[in-house]
Design brief:
single chain; alpha/beta; Rossmann fold; two-stranded antiparallel ribbon; 6 helices; globular
């Protein structure tokens, strides 16, 4: 389904160096091409002159890699903001809490929000759910976000792929439409040509 470029924004959630640090520390994640897909989305939205919004997490937890004074707070270079692109800073899971994201989207006439970022089952999911509840047409690029293995309830090992897939299942059809990077790019191009 075509996307109206004038009414569509890309929101990148928490694409920050702390997550590269976690990988370097040996944590395992899914979607090895997620960062390159995020970069493809950013490039396409920029080329179309469309809205790209960056959200960063500023943790208040004492030992977090995402504290603003730590190197992990910095953006990952492949998707770092350019001059004029909004950078919103949050301290909770939702990109809408404590930021002016909703006002920015509504003020720009945005009806459709495409989400990408890190991690799928935390801030990406929470932000997508809230966007859906606020009445936006939410698209989540499943191959432009990722998560990590974790120890879940009862001490059970949960592989990143399972967590990612379940998150997509929870969102699909109720809070968001699950897309791929390619399907978003095709819909954006079709909308521009219409």
């Amino acid at each position: 389904m075509p996307l109206d470029p004038a009414k569509t924004a890309l929101v990148l959630v928490d694409v920050q160096a702390a997550f590269l640090e976690r990988e370097q520390a040996g944590e395992r994640r899914n979607n090895p091409h997620a960062l390159s897909n995020m970069a493809r989305l950013v490039a396409a939205f920029r080329d179309a002159g469309r809205t790209v919004i960056h959200v960063r997490h500023a943790s208040t937890e004492r030992d977090s890699r995402l504290r603003p004074e730590r190197p992990g707070f910095a953006p990952i270079p492949q998707t770092a903001e350019r001059a004029g692109e909004p950078v919103l800073v949050k301290s909770v899971n939702s990109a809408f809490i404590g930021t002016d994201l909703e006002a920015l989207l509504r003020g720009g006439g945005i009806a459709t929000v495409v989400f990408a970022g890190i991690t799928t089952n935390h801030c990406v999911e929470t932000s997508a759910r809230m966007a859906g509840n606020l009445g936006f047409d939410v698209r989540l690029a499943e191959d432009a976000c990722y998560t990590f293995d974790r120890t879940g309830h009862g001490g059970r090992h949960e592989p990143a792929e399972d967590i990612h897939r379940m998150t997509l299942s929870n969102l699909d059809g109720e809070f968001a439409t699950i897309e791929t990077t390619q399907s978003v790019l095709a819909a954006l191009a079709a909308g521009a040509a219409a």
